[in-house]
Amino acid sequence: MDALFEYNQKLLNSTSTAFVRSIIDDIPWKESRLTAIRGARGVGKTTLMLQYQKLHYGDVSNHKSLYVRLDNLYFTQHSLVEVAEQFERQGGELLLVDEVHNAPYWAKEIKEIYDVFPTLHVVFTGSSLLHILNAQADLSRRCMSYDMQGLSFREYMLLYHNIELPKVSLDDILHNSMPIVNEVMSKCRPLAFFPDYLKQGYYPFGTEGFALYHQRVENIVDMLLNIELPQLRSVDIGNIRKIKALLAIISTEVPMLVDISRLATLTGIARTTILAYLQYLHEAKLIRLLYSDDLSVKKMQKPDKILMENTNLLQALSLQTPNIGTMRETFFCNQLGYKHQVEYNKRGDYLIDHKLVFEIGGKAKDGKQVAKIDNAFIASDDFDYPIGNKLPLWLFGLMY
């Protein structure tokens, strides 16, 4: 047990709190007895937990908090329940459990800790593929679950350029955009930074340098495909190369209207299997599946459109220079998809929350396509100030 506290302290000593993600204020660290933070590899889940521990508990000397990783060799000889019992006896209050999907019976152990130690608060992280509801022990009634994305454009500006921009809602952008833009313009010219964010700003590991940034993105993809998909979705390891080929096709051709038969021919994967693999890649936060009606039975069938999940993945995996229109649409869906329902829409480009129609384009986009549609807007790149229903695309990067 002492070895865990010692390891935890070493991590805290090297954890900076100079920049902290805004999601830290959304998570009920002490209000909820059981909280899950899910997210793709590389978005900063581990750092977030250690930052909270450092900011609110200082260090581990009082044994009030403890951070553990379930891939630590300590857990080859000890169970998580055993650790929780000893920790609680020493006056422990907050147990932070990282990478729970690395333990085969994590859900049963977490449930037992919840049931047996009522004074203990547990926060655990896991893959985007993690099923809270359908795990071996149903945690859905006990657990508050949060999904963590990569950096927004607003967070990127603060982390890499020390420029603090306002956090705004979609409603603010639609109905109060000019004061927001004026405030931003008083601090920076956003279009001077926006292209770099689209290329290498979504993941926080750029603080270690950008020379190998896209290589690290590819490494994340490899770990998801080679480890998490076989482990959490029972994907045949022999099909991983075909799935990589599928990703290469999607990243090069998106935004694509989906032709499942063509994808099956190009990859050598059976049509029914491709549909399952697309859903897995969506759950793993590698691609985004879009439907013209998310409430319809079509969601059980093929999607209407596919995008990469974020622009940095698109840059890293595409076999050619990504189309600028693809970059714009990917950014828009990624930033709004965090808190809003995003659907494919034939009359515009996208339907938000079943009521707002958006067309995405460049500075010259005139909006003729949505001119006669109520609640229709244009999100335009290379453009600073709002004019009527035409809004700067970068504004949507201030929403978290």
Describe the structure.
Helices cover 38% and strands 14% of the residues. The chain contains 14 helices and 13 strands. The strands form three sheets. It has a five-stranded parallel sheet, sandwiched between helices. The protein is an alpha/beta fold. It folds into two domains: 2-148, Rossmann fold (3-Layer(aba) Sandwich); 154-398, no CATH class. The protein is globular, with a radius of gyration of 22 Å. A hairpin with a 3-residue loop joins strand 10 and strand 11.
Measured as a percent range, the helix fraction is: 25-40%
What is the general shape?
Answer: globular
Major β-sheet annotation: 5 strands, parallel
Strand segment count: 13
The domain count comes to 2
Structural classification:
alpha/beta
Tally the helices.
14
- Distance between the first and last residues' Cα: 38 Å
Global Rg: 22 Å
SSE succession: HEHEHEHEEHHHHHHEHHEEHHEEEEE
Estimated share of beta-strand residues: 5-15%
Mean pLDDT: 92
- State the strand order across the main sheet: 2-3-4-1-5
Low-confidence stretches: none
